[in-house]
Amino acid sequence: MDLLVTIFGSLALALGLLFFLVQEEDTSPVNVAWLIPVFSIVSFVLILLLGSYDPRRGGSIAVIGVGFSSVFSLGVAYDVLINDVTRGGYIESTRIWFGGQTFAFEFGTYIDGLAGLLLLVVGFVSYLVVVFSLGYMVKEGDRQVRYFAEIALFVGVMLGLVVANSFLLMFIFWELVGVCSYLLIGFWYEKPSAASAAKKAFIVTRVGDVFLLLGLVILFNTFGTLRYSELFSNPELLSENAEAVKWATLCIFGGAVGKSAQFPLHVWLPDAMEGPTTVSALIHAATMVKAGVFLVARSYPLIVHSPDTAIYIAVTGGVTAFIAASMAMVMYDIKRVLAYSTISQLGYMFLGLGAGAWAVWHATENGLEVHAQGYTAGLFHLMNHAFFKALLFLGSGAVIHAVHTQDMREMGGLRKAMPITSTAMGLGVLSIAGLPFFSGFWSKDEILEAVHHNWDAEGIFGALWWLGLLTAAMTAFYMTRLWMMTFSGPPSHEVEEVIPSDDHSDSGNWEILKKEVKIQAHEAPRVMTIPLMILAFLAVFSGFVVFLGDGFGSVVFYGAHHSSEGPIQWGLLDHILLSTLTHLSVLVGLTGVILGYLFYKRGDDGQTPFSTAFVSDSVVTSNLHTFLSNRMYMARLFDWFGMRTWDTLAMVCDWFDRKIIDGIVNGIASITQILSGEVRKLTSGFTGHYASLTIGGLGALVVVTRVVFPLMGWSL
Amino acid sequence: MIDPIHFVVFSSILMLIGAYGVIRNKNAIVVLMSIEIMLTAANINFVAFSSYYHDLTGQVAVLFVTTIAAAEVAIGLAILLSLFKQRDTIELDLLNTLRW
After folding, report:
1. What's the pLDDT band for A512 if we cut at 50, 70, 90?
2. What is its EC number (chain B) (predicted)?
3. Chain A nearest CA to B1, separation (Å)
4. What is the rounded (10 degree) CA torsion for B26, B28, B32, B33?
5. Which of B23, B96, B100 sits opposite A691 (nearest CB)?
6. In the 3-class helix/strand/coil scheme, how is chain B assigned residue by residue?
7. What does the buried/exposed string (b/e) look like for A508-517 if buried means 16 or more CB atoms within 10 Å of the residue's CB?
8. Residues in chain B closer than 8 A to A681 (CB atoms)
9. Do B100 and A692 touch (CB under 8 A)?
């Protein structure tokens, strides 16, 4: 009860404060956008100081602080996306941060349609996640203080990243996001796997961050500023410096590759599942990985001047989408399936963004009408993905909370026990699978259409389109598999696992391990199911915003946008529903879902028709299965590469340090010691010795100055 | 009029005698006395050049030097006295605790 009071009271208070701040005529929430990250960051400090006095161990403070941030974010998003206060441009407010003779770094906020969209997604989803954590983390006791403090900071810096007005300020928040993800992935730091997953996440993204920093240095050296408004305002200057822009954008995209877990830096995200499930939900749906997509979308005015970067982004996205989806098909850990699906969907977003940027460049070169469909589609997918992925993660969190395992083979039959969770997750699955009229359908279709649109001009987009289509089918398949394995069938069944037998390396034999599983699950508490229901609603319906009013494309767009009259965009609906491309992607999506259903629907005995024997019987499938289960040996390859190169390098450095550097230092020390051993003998303690040395020295001086100098012809 | 070179040679000889006394003697009182000899050598130079240049400044300096030398001897003897009380000796060879 007191929880409801806290939640609604703080939301009402935040709304009141927002109205108080914007009550004057010409102010809008955009003018106080700087407060958005401040609320969460302040609540981070407050939780650290006062968290242990709170009966919910900091949870109430986090809910209030993040709630304030969310209300303000949604206020800004409302003004930007609905009221269109930016009028297709941007609103910036700055203060001098520090300045020199020739430059000044400023901090402030830069709000446009993109920032508005991200504020909507981050503000909304992260608030639901924080509320959900109140129920999910309750078993952790006093450690919740640390959890809630870190999650408040995480949300705060992500919101800061979104509203920042320069690459420099964004980079600071970018790094803070990395730090927070490190802290939260390693929340159970006493588990070695969690500790190493946290380190892995931090170090792998750091590889990307180095590139990002390099890109920013190139930008600053070339243009002398890192402010968005100054960088983006002069397209002629950008196209004059095409070479610098190309390298800068490639490097910036390197940062996005690390943060958004794109190939080949995707290895950290599946391991990041070691953190609490709520953290995974936050990382996958709202913060962290979305930062990479945001960065690329933010750099769009630069990227459209570099076709190479655009193609590179699209190819990376397409390839990542495909390989991540292929690995998701064989994973048994429910969270790992979702992790690979996130990588795959992020690949989709990059595919869309890259295709859009290339289209803009192509259109500008040939004097055609500039229309970045891929940009809108990619960001549209970002929004939809945030909703259904948060839903799926929170749902899987509720499942894990109930059955205390993450292995889908040991689940099954949860549909009766957890009706709300299973329905909500079912809707999320249908949405990500791209079934018609669910949100994922609209955005995935738009991305594929944007890629297909480029095919005529550049052949590589044809290959990417096929990859995307194939990925869509695979996505539908593995998500159906996830739902069927978790929820269908009776509550108890026998688990079969194929493991290599002891003499596998010689004989190639496999053994089947059997164990009985009984599931006693219960529905999650209401503080967890209500966020699920809200997200399920959005996962189903958020796709329709393309048709409402002037459409999604009229607020989040690059270049020009088409809009038609009327409250609902019937023309667009016609265009989508009658297109052959749409029919094709619906077809592959349905195929995936049906195959998933046929293969993985648990029967009355709890077994899936797609038995493990099927995999192990054929050489091709078993080898493919092993290959994919081992994550394409990417992690192994990285380890091997690390051992070979970095260890050798480290050994050389170690030798150099021990022998050469230490040798010099120790040599100087021992020479000094030997010399001083001799010199100290002069201090004999006999007064006479001192006196004779003094007089002798004086005599020597006299002889030198009065005899030697004149003889040699020198003078003092 | 005696040539100043004679004074200079004389005072140099006195100075060297004093220095020799300081270095060679083991008895602290004799060392103090040798230091007085060195001061006297300096005083002779002052007086000699004072009369040579017809300038009284040198002689005034000698008065100061004499005064300070007396004070120095007083302090030195006091130190030696207390040294003797503590160590039962003023042989410099035995007072070498400042040694490395």
Report:
1. low
2. 1.6.5.11
3. 29
4. -60
5. B23
6. CCCHHHHHHHHHHHHHHHHHHHHHCCEHHHHHHHHHHHHHHHHHHHHHHHHHHCCCHHHHHHHHHHHHHHHHHHHHHHHHHHHHHHHCCCEHHHCCCCCC
7. eebeeeeeeb
8. 100
9. no
Report the candidate in A117, A114, A104, A116 with the shortest Cα–Cα distance to residue A227.
Answer: A104
Which residues of chain B make contact with A688, given a CB cutoff of 8 A?
A: 22-24, 26, 92
pLDDT higher than threshold 90 for residue A207: no
**Cβ of B99 and A687 within 8 Å?**
no
**CB–CB contact B22 A685 (8 Å):** no
Nearest-by-Cβ selection for A684 from B22, B26, B99? B99
What structural domains and CATH numbers belong to chain B?
A: 4-90 (1.10.287.3510)
The C-alpha atoms of residue A76 and residue A117 are separated, in whole angstroms, by 10
Inter-chain touch B98–A683, beta carbons under 8 Å? yes
Q: Please determine, for the modelled complex, whether the ipTM score is greater than 0.85.
A: no
Q: What is the pLDDT of residues A384-415, one digit of tens each?
A: 888 888 888 888 888 887 777 777 777 777 77
Kindly identify which residue of chain B lies nearest to residue A687, measuring between CA atoms: B92
If DSSP codes are grouped into helix, strand and coil, which group holds residue A166? strand
Q: What is the mean pLDDT of residues A128-132?
A: 83
Cα separations in angstroms, A512 against A10, A501, A553, A580, A627: 55, 9, 53, 46, 19
Taking contacts as CB-CB distances below 8 angstroms, the residues of chain B near A685 are: 96-100
Please enumerate in sequence order all residues whose Cβ is within 8 A of that of A90, keeping only pairs 6 or more positions apart, or say none: A110, A111, A112, A228, A229
Highest mean pLDDT among A32-36, A349-353, A505-509: A349-353
Would you call B19 and A691 a contact, using CB atoms and an 8 Å cutoff?
yes
